[in-house]
Write a structure and sequence with these properties.
It is a single chain. This protein is α/β, with parallel strands linked by helices. The chain contains 18 helices and 12 strands. A hairpin with a 4-residue loop joins strand 10 and strand 11. Helix 3 crosses helix 12. The protein is globular and about 65 Å long.
């Protein structure tokens, strides 16, 4: 049975009979107990309360692809520099300021209630001008509107304290316990330190001594088939060390992770992870704990009857972010920055006269097209369940890898546009 016909069975989810039928289906399909089901509902209700009224226009700006780690699962295929002191970066400080100013001009003209820009990479902090860049972003978007995703190996706590004046959110990536983290984060053992795990965790522990950092730091893990069964224990360990915020990100079928397509968790594995996250919310002092928003979108529709992240913003989600690559290209999703997905660039903010308004809103823009493919009558092959379709990029990536395999770079733009309408394979209604 295809997802479309499965969904048709439950399209009147508001009716009590359909609700009961869907519950019975999920219990059987996911091998859940009644206690599991109730724990999931409670977790999703908690998340619904946390995100209500907080729709955010998000921007992920990969400020460089240069990195001092060579992670086996890097979705942007970052360029490794053991000693990045001599690295040549893609843009000047003034060009970065131009990009930030154009983003601000658009968001301020639209009057969005919340704007959040997060710097990623590569490793953003290896740019020597990053403190200056963070300050400029702070002046434009406010402290609460600026964040960073870092591997946590390039800074000491004093440097982090100085940066914190300009950041409202500090995401530090630790993918699991030491042996796993190091095997994926530094598989060729070419970094300048013996253990990336020890280096990063040491920074986190130092930072937790300062309240202004403790309330901003969120540890995040990218989930694969090799660490998914250990994440409950790892999150408990972090909580015991005083970490307050933890999040679990999806493995994306792109970049070096795309070469490990078989390590991306299955729908059933994600469902078991959902149970673990629900348990952790109920049994640890973690004040913030959540799965990637695309998974919560799917699960909240199936277990609660409504999409907790539904929004009038792009792709129907209040948590979706557009992406900017180091050269200033704009994409409908942050993971589109490497081939073949970078052919989906909707425009470039360093082109003379370009504006983000034009790039986002012009008829025929690839961002507008992606937004259309998130609508109910199109996305997931027309599935009638009232969610935003999980993640259009994940649907697209799985579609291309399934069709082209290791020849994914042969995919054309029409292939990729077609892939946006495919099914997010994390959905429990999906059957291959």
């Amino acid at each position: 049975m295809t997802q479309l016909s499965q969904a048709a069975r439950f399209r009147t989810f508001g009716a009590e009979g359909a609700k009961d039928a869907l519950r019975a289906f999920l219990l059987e399909r996911l091998a859940l107990t009644d206690a599991d089901y109730d724990a999931i509902v409670k977790y999703l209700q908690t998340r619904a309360a946390e995100v209500r009224g907080k729709d955010t226009f998000g921007i992920v700006y990969d400020i460089t692809r240069v990195c001092n780690l060579e992670c086996a699962h890097c979705c942007v295929s970052a360029i490794f520099k053991r000693d990045p002191g001599d690295a040549k970066f893609e843009t000047t400080t003034d060009q970065v300021f131009t990009i930030l100013d154009k983003v601000h001009a658009y968001t301020s003209s639209k009057g969005f209630p919340n704007v959040f820009l997060i710097f990623g990479g590569g490793e953003p902090t290896i740019r020597p001008d990053f403190p200056e860049v963070a300050q400029h972003a702070h002046e434009l978007f406010g402290v609460a509107g600026v964040g960073i995703n870092s591997n946590g190996t390039t800074l000491n706590v004093d440097q982090l304290l100085a940066l914190s004046e300009h950041l409202g959110f500090i995401e530090i990536s630790i993918d699991g316990f030491e042996s796993y983290h190091n095997a994926w984060r530094d598989p060729k053992t070419r970094t300048m330190f013996d253990s990336p795990y020890a280096k990063t965790l040491g920074l986190v522990l130092d930072a937790l001594k300062y309240e202004e950092l403790a309330e901003k730091i969120e540890v995040s893990s990218a989930v694969t088939t090799e660490n998914i069964n250990d994440l409950r224990a790892f999150a408990e360990h972090l909580a015991s060390l005083g970490v307050r915020q933890y999040s679990v990100h999806r493995a994306m079928p792109v970049g070096r992770m795309g070469l490990r397509f078989d390590r991306i968790p299955s729908m059933e594995q994600y469902a078991r992870l959902l149970i673990d996250v629900a348990w952790l919310r109920a049994n640890t002092p973690l004040t913030t704990l959540h799965l990637h928003h695309s998974l919560e979108t799917i699960y909240s529709v199936l277990f609660l009857g409504h999409d907790i992240h539904a929004s009038e913003l792009l792709t129907g989600s209040g948590r979706h972010s557009i992406g900017l690559d180091p050269q200033g290209n704009v994409y409908f999703d942050p993971w589109c920055v490497v081939p073949p997905f970078n052919r989906l660039a909707a425009g470039n903010l360093l082109t003379d006269g370009s504006t983000l308004k034009e790039i986002v809103e012009t008829e025929g823009s690839l961002i507008r097209i992606a937004d259309e493919y998130a609508k109910q009558e199109v996305r997931c092959n027309g599935c009638r369940m009232k969610c935003s379709g999980g993640m259009r990029f994940n649907a697209l990536g799985h579609f291309l890898f399934s069709r082209f395999g290791n020849k994914i770079n042969d995919a054309t733009v029409p292939d990729m546009v077609a892939g946006m309408s495919e099914i997010d394979p994390a959905c429990p209604l999906y059957e291959a």
